[in-house]
Amino acid sequence: MLVDAPGGDNLAAPTESVVRCRPLRNSTFWRQSLARGSNRVTVGHWARMDLASLASARMRSGVRAWEVDRLHIKEPDSGQALDLLEQIVYSAGSRGAERVFLRVPCGSQIVDVARRVGFFPYYEEIHLTGREWLPEADVSSDDPTDGFTVEEPSPPDQYGLFQLYCAATPQRVREGTGVTVDQWRDSQEPARSGRKETVLKHNGKIVGWRMREPFGKTAAGQIVGHPDHPGTAPYLVRDSCQTQNWLVPSYRPNIVELLDRQGLHETARYTMLIKTVAVPVRSREFSYVEA
After folding, report:
1. Given Cys at both, which of 3, 170, 178, 218 links 183, Cβ 3.0 to 4.6 Å?
2. pTM value?
């Protein structure tokens, strides 16, 4: 029997929704939320024949890390919201999750509820948007790639990218996103078709990384520059003139400033909540919704 998706907005803010700035179609919502497979779990609360609330989580890049990307609750500050989040964490934990991510708009009522479940707000993300800009005509007199090579990353570069992550990410944040190379790798958002990555190397060491990922007619980007090589971030930004959307962690204000100079502007802020999984008590009022 086909039923409508739960009423109200999606209280979670997955990257796709942030970049496209529009909700999923009802058919897409059900196809993704109820898909049979090992990379998604869904729980819901039924009121007779109606699905009153729903939470769904997908695996990120590995079984150790999951993200709640669908969260439909009619009363966010109710006990129902608390139980629903506990159940989705339990479900992800039963699939091997060590960490569960949840991105929500700053100021969302869900922050307080999630903290009661054990989520912690590790950092904020700034969403910057703008039109494509023209590359600078002449930067040869102050070329930050002097002594650097620009390459596409290869599988052996994974550990070098992890070292860059460690150098550019505060210890407190790494405690949430991952402290080992396996935890870090699994915590990355899954790659979409068409993703393009670039690394800058200095004497064989990775000191910069850029990613551009398509989302329909638009694209989103990310940049990481090594703090000991300050010229890498400006170069990567200048060479990213066709990327209109950026989600930048609050602990990288230099990237925000560089993008602001290119004419991009802040449109929203999000809180990234992360929970280290401890299996909660199962509630009889909730049931799996997956097919």
Report:
1. 178
2. 0.87
